[in-house]
Amino acid sequence: MFEAYPFGYKFTLGGEHIMKKTRGIQFLPKEACFDVMDSPVGNLTIITSPEGLHAILWDTDVNHLIDEKNSERLIENKKDEIILQTKAQLTEYFEGSRKIFDLPIVMKGTDFQIQVWQQLLKIPYSQTVSYAEQAARIGNKNKARAVGRTNGLNPISIVIPCHRVVGSNGSLVGFAGGLSKKDFLLKLEQKLNHAE
């Protein structure tokens, strides 16, 4: 059994309750569904509903999630229109033919979280900003750490490009998918941008 909770998921395995925090996903609707996409950065789990795209999660986010496929709350659906659109656009992104995503994103979180995630969408393809710069852009340069924590809770990886935020000295720090994947995404964008 699998149920959505405000800050993660509750699994019932053999009568034992296990809480697993899954990045930034809150209150998925009953109609939510998922599918898994193979990509150059590993498997990506796409979660959608009739409302839109709720999440693109890394393997590290869903170690237990997919084991609960038969849950009434979240079902596998390879034919969902938004999942198919997301897969197609991610494929174009990895192939270098898409720089801007056009998907119905669903952001659910606190006002601050949504403000931080919306600011991520304004960072151009192949460019980076520091956490301090991102904090300044939302009105308080002293909130760099809070911004970093909130970026880490961004549930819609790649499409909401938290990988484009780096340390003040340009170093790669903090990324839910792992620094090797952050490095891959940044180098992919820079390579394809310079190739034009």
Molecular structure report:
- The chain is α/β, with parallel strands linked by helices.
- The protein has a domain at 111-194: Orthogonal Bundle (Arc Repressor Mutant, subunit A).
- Helix content is 29%, strand content 19%.
- Helix 3 (131-137) crosses helix 4 (144-152).
- The longest helix has 16 residues, at 179-194.
- The protein is globular and about 45 Å long.
- The termini are far apart.
- The model is unreliable at 1-21 and 66-71 (pLDDT under 50).
Short description:
The protein has 196 residues and is α/β, with parallel strands linked by helices.
Total E-strand runs: 9
Name the poorly predicted regions: 1-21, 66-71
Question: What radius of gyration results from the CA coordinates?
Answer: 17 Å
Beta-strand fraction estimate: 15-25%
Kindly report the spatial arrangement of strands forming the biggest sheet.
6-5-4-7
CATH superfamily of the domain at 111-194: Winged helix-like DNA-binding domain superfamily/Winged helix DNA-binding domain
CATH topology of the domain at 111-194: Arc Repressor Mutant, subunit A
Second CATH tier, the architecture of the domain at 111-194: Orthogonal Bundle
What is the residue-mean pLDDT, rounded to a whole number?
82
Helix content: 25-40%
| Helix-strand string | EEEEEEEHHEHHEH
The major pleated sheet works out as: 4 strands, mixed
Structural class: alpha/beta
Indicate the overall shape.
globular
